[in-house]
Amino acid sequence: MTVKRGRPRGFDRDQALMTATVLFWQHGYEGVSISDLTKAMGIAPTSLYAAFQSKRDLFAEVTDRYGDTFGAFMGRALEEETDVREGFARMLREAAVHYTDPGHPAGCLIVSAATNYSPDDEDVAVDLRGRRRSNVEGFASRLAAAQAGRQLPPEADPRSLAVYFAAVVQGMSQQARDGASTADLSAVADLAMAAWPR
Fold first, then answer.
1. pLDDT (average), residues 131-156
2. Taking the complete model, does pTM exceed 0.85, yes or no?
3. What pLDDT is recorded for position 105?
4. Residue 80: Cβ within 10 Å count
C-alpha cells in the first residue's frame, strides 16, 4: 500500500515578516544574519531568497510594514485630533505606552535599527534616515497648517517645533531601550508639551 504524503505546509509570509520584524527591531539590521532569519522562521535560505530576494529587500518590506502597523500611531494621532496641540500630546502619550510595551522589543525600529552599520550597508542607514526626516516634514506640515488655521501663534516656528518633537520621540525610543518605564516616558511627554507655544 502506498502511503500518501500530506501537502507541505504553505509558507506563511505574514508570519515570516513578523518574525523578521522582531529580529531587526531587537538586534538592528547589522545584528541579524540570514542564518538568524532562517532559523527563526524555520525555513531554508533558498525559501527566504525565493520569497524576499535578499536580506536588504526583506528589511525594506519590514520597515514599510512597521510604518503601517506598529509605527502608525504617530500619524493617526496627528490626523485624528482636530486640535494640533492635542494631536502632539496624544502622539507622545502613545509613544510612552508603545515604546515600553512588553509584547514587542522596546523603542522604535526606525530609530534604532541602523545605529551600527558597516560601510557596505550604508544604504540601510540612508533609508532609515530618510524615513525619520519624512516624519519631521510631516510634523512641520501639520504645524504649518495649524498656524494658518490660527491654532499656533504667528511668531511660532513650525520647522523648529517639528525638529523638537522628532527629537523628543527619538529620545523616548532610546530611553525605552535603556529600560525607562511607561511612567518615566509619560512624564517626559508632559514635560515636552510644556514647551508648546502659548
1. 96
2. yes
3. 96
4. 10
DSSP state letters, the chain? -PPPPPPPPPP-HHHHHHHHHHHHHHHTTTT--HHHHHHHHT--HHHHHHHHSSHHHHHHHHHHHHHHTGGGHHHHHHHH-SSHHHHHHHHHHHHHHHTT-TTS-SS-HHHHTTSS--GGGHHHHHHHHHHHHHHHHHHHHHHHHHHHTTSS-TT--HHHHHHHHHHHHHHHHHHHHTT--HHHHHHHHHHHHTTS--
Q: Which residues contact 178 (CB under 8 A, 6 or more apart)?
A: none
The pLDDT tens digits of the residues spanning 64-99 come to 999 999 999 999 999 999 999 999 999 999 999 999
The set of residues, in sequence order, having a beta carbon less than 8 Å from that of 24 and lying 6+ positions away, is 32, 59, 62, 109, 113
